Amino acid sequence: MQIVQRLAALLLCIPMLAHAGVQLVVDGVEDPLKLAVSSGVDLSEYANREVTEAQVRRLYAQSLDQAKTSLEPYGYYEAKVQGQLEPVGNDWRVTLHVTPGEPVKVTGVEIKLDPTAAKIGAIRRAQRAIENLKGQTLNHGEYDSSRDALSGALTANGFLDARLVTHRVDVNRGERSAIIYTIIESCRRRGLDPFTYLRDVLTELPRTTNWQVKNLTPAAWQKSRHANSLTAAA
User: What is the DSSP letter of 49?
Assistant: First the structure.
């Protein structure tokens, strides 16, 4: 009898140690952003898995940053996420309130192609599809698909060794990255060593203000480097 009573008491304690799963609720956005958040947080894997209170609190704390990161491929880099964690029966319910903020816009796309390739209709249409991304919300998936379509059009039309060069993609939040894309092409045109140039520029960028960025262009850097060499020689 005592054994039965002890087993009953132990069974009563089990719900306190582990809950059946986590109910995840996402509001403030609709699909595909809602789906991106739901699948981008580790909590989504615990809908039908037992989880302890310590585990769910750790997963909940991580989910806020995970939710924000999951929106970046769709152009939302300034999302704000607030959450709520509460027990519901034997389960936990996590509610994520998402404010996506203003999306990043593609402000410029420039593609460099072989002049002969650019005259072929299929290649020209694929190129235009990328150029039409200008003014739209930055979507990494759409950009990757358009880029792959252009590469495929080049290959299909006999340009087997062609290399697609997207040498500038300017977006509002990625201004520094856009400069780097342009740098590599510009360095080659000017006969500069890209490694040396990038090393110097990336060293200076953290302490460079917006109005000083113009001093880091390849032309300005080359001029400054030449002036420094003359000063050292004197």
Answer: S
In the chain, domain spans = 19-99, 106-215
Convert 21-36 into a string of H (helix), E (strand) and C (coil).
Answer: CEEEEEECCCCCHHHH
Percent of the chain with pLDDT over 70: 71
CATH number corresponding to 19-99: 3.10.20.310
Can the peptide bond before residue 103 be classed as cis, meaning omega within 30 degrees of 0? no
pTM of the model: 0.62
C-alpha distances in Å from residue 160, one per residue of 112, 125, 201:
16, 18, 34
> What is residue 178's predicted lDDT score, i.e. its pLDDT?
29
Rg (CA), the chain: 27
Tokens of 189: 């045109």
Q: What angle do CA 116, 121, 123 make, to 5 degrees?
A: 65
